[in-house]
């Protein structure tokens, strides 16, 4: 789903570019198109396999479920356990909708002539930003097993609690991917227009709404605890802000690039490389 949205962003960006590029203005970000563009697309594509493997790693059987005790969950998170299961499906659909809206939201940047001239750099930077966010998510989700809230809920049938993708509550990928996209939108817009102070705060507050809606509905769907969505929001927001900021700071250095790597043993990630 995430890969599909990124590809849609690519195709729509191509059709929305018009006019002669303005080469008189210095670019805001320095981006390595062949390394970061191609490499990050491959990384996100490979991530589809990573999600499937994560679901298998996070499986539960009946013996796992019977040992779950709601009282073992911290008081701050515990209330999510008892959300009404009748609302799960509707909340799941709403969270997917708000996620897709968030991921496509950077298309709004193409309406701005000042920004549109750098569309290829920004597309590359957007994909690289999601690649970094994916890498952080996988590092966490594969390392930590946390049962999803609905597996504790006494009103949920046992057969629903067993199977794949039951112990990957930590942390919310949906929320992280959503905030990555919307905060990237705000970061790029405010950088290009040199917006500071309270106007900048207002813009970042506005783009917080879609990931907040994703977070609320992920909890309503019984998929994540409060701390899961809070951390997902923070990680995504940090990715959406810091990756463009890194490229902004190193734009004068042609020897620096953010590059994905793949090992012979199947490990994958991203590196910040310096080329002599």
TrEMBL record:
Does the keyword Signal feature in the UniProt annotation? Answer: yes
Q: Matching InterPro entries, A to Z?
A: PAP2/HPO, PAP2/HPO_sf
Leader sequence segment: 1-21
Q: Which UniProt keywords apply?
A: Signal
Where is the Phosphatidic acid phosphatase type 2/haloperoxidase domain positioned along the sequence? Answer: 124-248
Highest taxon of the lineage: Bacteria
| Any Pfam family the entry gives | PAP2
* Name of the protein in its database record: Phosphoesterase PA-phosphatase related protein
Classification lineage: Bacteria, Pseudomonadati, Bacteroidota, Cytophagia, Cytophagales
């Amino acid at each position: 789903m995430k890969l599909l949205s990124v590809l849609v962003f690519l195709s729509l960006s191509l059709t929305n570019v018009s006019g002669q590029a303005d080469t008189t203005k210095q670019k805001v970000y320095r981006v390595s198109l062949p390394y970061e563009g191609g490499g990050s697309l491959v990384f996100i594509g490979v991530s589809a396999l990573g999600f499937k493997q994560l679901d298998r790693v996070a499986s539960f059987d009946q013996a796992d479920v019977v040992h779950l005790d709601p009282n073992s969950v911290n008081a701050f998170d515990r209330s999510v356990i008892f959300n009404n299961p009748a609302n799960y499906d509707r909340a799941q659909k709403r969270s997917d909708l708000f996620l897709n809206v968030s991921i496509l939201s950077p298309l709004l940047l193409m309406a701005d002539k000042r920004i549109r001239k750098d569309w290829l750099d920004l597309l590359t930077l957007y994909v690289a930003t999601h690649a970094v966010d994916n890498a952080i998510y996988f590092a966490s989700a594969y390392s930590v097993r946390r049962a999803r809230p609905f597996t504790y809920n006494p009103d949920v049938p046992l057969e629903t609690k067993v199977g794949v993708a039951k112990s990957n509550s930590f942390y919310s990928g949906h929320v992280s991917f959503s905030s990555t996209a919307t905060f990237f939108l705000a970061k790029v817009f405010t950088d290009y227009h040199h917006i500071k102070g309270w106007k900048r705060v207002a813009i970042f507050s506005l783009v917080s709404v879609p990931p907040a809606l994703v977070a609320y509905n992920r909890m309503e769907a019984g998929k994540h605890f409060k701390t899961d969505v809070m951390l997902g929001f923070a990680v995504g927001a940090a990715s959406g802000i810091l990756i463009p900021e890194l490229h902004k700071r190193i734009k004068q250095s042609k020897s620096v690039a953010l590059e994905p790597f793949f090992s012979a043993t199947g490990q994958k990630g991203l590196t910040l490389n310096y080329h002599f």
